[in-house]
Write a structure and sequence with these properties.
12 helices, Aspartate Aminotransferase, domain 1, 17% strand, alpha/beta
Length: 385
């Protein structure tokens, strides 16, 4: 059996053909394919304004800038997330407060935020960054109420949640519509739902925020009436996405329903075949009012029922050519950050793994993954369970 990775991009002839066409255009930096990709994304997500950029990390940085955050601003974010959200905040001089998460979903809840506010005796909150780990958009309306209560900016780190949606008052909303948030950010990394090679996007319904992100995305340049004349009122970055990357994004977006359908099928396959292992693994359950993007399939080993720790279990899979993944290491565990340990985050980190889930997986590979899991349990579980 060849190595099975937890994620992989889905590329076919449609992608190759439009990329090839983009290479023949007069502009291959910011041209017609960038504009078309943004137009298509805006229509799909249902937001008023959107800019594509060259990574999810860039999108989060632009979100902080567009929100008007500055040195000394207070921002709350979950402990379980990729480092970029924390990294951007610290480089801007923000005061970052790390909240605990649910021990199974790995997501921060409004309750976690309120506990953090009380612990640190915070009198002012400037922003909350909420991350939809794995692609499941929890607690959207409750976070919106929290935003309203504290009069702060609510940023959705939706890098895992492209294609996800939720229902509120009998109406469906896409994540990225910004109906109950100020800003949403996405990543189009190769292992995300759709890819542009590397890339990202930032969405809002606020015109003032949009103008900021648009200007800062390209060196801070503000062009005057004559196209050769411009000013730079504030220094920006080079976060532009090229036409070549955008061409890939256009064809990827056209396949979004096919991609989500396949991921959903894999998700259901795991849920069906893992039922017989519930003494040894925990499987998350989700509300029917929320539509998952199926970016990750996270399970939790019930470590108390095993004779070893999680690392040894992961190594067993690796020796059998299956690369499981950890999403994520709690931010406070890194040397760059000295912070208190958080109990639920520790539990999540100690027990959670992401099973392979991507469009290219075959039925043969899926049954092989289940067979290796069974062997793993037989070998390492405590016999008296």
């Amino acid at each position: 059996m060849k190595t099975i990775n937890y994620g992989r991009q889905f590329i076919d002839d449609r992608d190759f053909n439009l990329i090839k066409k983009s290479l023949g255009e007069e502009k291959i930096t910011t041209g017609k394919f960038v504009n078309l990709f943004e137009k298509n994304l805006r229509k799909y997500l249902g937001c008023k304004f959107i800019k594509v950029c060259n990574s999810g990390t860039a999108a989060i940085h632009l979100a902080y800038e567009a929100a008007g955050l500055k040195k000394g601003s207070n921002i709350i974010m979950p402990s379980i997330n990729f480092i970029s959200a924390y990294r951007n905040a610290k480089l801007m001089g923000l005061n970052v407060y790390i909240a605990d998460v649910d021990k199974y979903s790995g997501q921060m809840s409004p309750k976690n935020v309120l506990e953090l506010i009380k612990f640190h005796k915070l009198k002012k909150i400037d922003a909350i960054l909420n991350m939809y780990l794995g692609g499941y958009p929890e607690n959207i309306i409750d976070f919106y109420k929290l935003k309203t209560k504290y009069n702060c900016i609510l940023i959705e780190d939706a890098c895992h949640a492209f294609g996800a949606s939720y229902k509120y008052k009998n109406k469906n909303y896409k994540i990225g519509s910004c109906k109950h948030s100020d800003i949403s950010t996405f990543s189009f990394h190769p292992l995300k739902t759709i890819t542009t090679g590397e890339g990202g996007a930032i969405c809002t319904n606020n015109k003032k925020m949009f103008t900021k992100m648009k200007n800062l995305l390209s060196h801070g340049i503000v062009r005057h009436k004559n196209y050769w004349d411009y000013d730079i009122p504030k220094l920006g970055m080079n976060y532009r996405l090229s036409d070549i990357n955008s061409a890939l994004g256009i064809t990827q977006l056209k396949k979004i329903n096919q991609i989500l359908k396949k991921r959903n099928e894999i998700y259901n396959f795991y849920s069906k075949h893992l039922k017989s292992f519930t003494k040894f693994i925990h499987i998350n359950r989700y509300s029917k009012n929320l539509k998952h993007s199926f970016h990750l399939y996270v399970v939790h080993f019930k470590i108390e029922n095993f004779k070893c720790d999680k690392d040894r279990l992961l190594n067993f899979f690796k020796k059998n050519n299956i690369n499981l993944q950890q999403h994520y290491i709690p931010i406070y565990k890194f040397k760059i950050l000295k912070s208190r340990s958080l109990p639920n985050s520790e539990k999540y980190y100690r027990t959670s793994v992401s099973l392979p889930i991507h469009v290219n997986l075959t039925n043969k590979e899926l049954f092989y993954i289940i067979s290796v899991l069974k062997k793993c349990i037989n070998r390492f579980s405590k016999k008296n369970v």
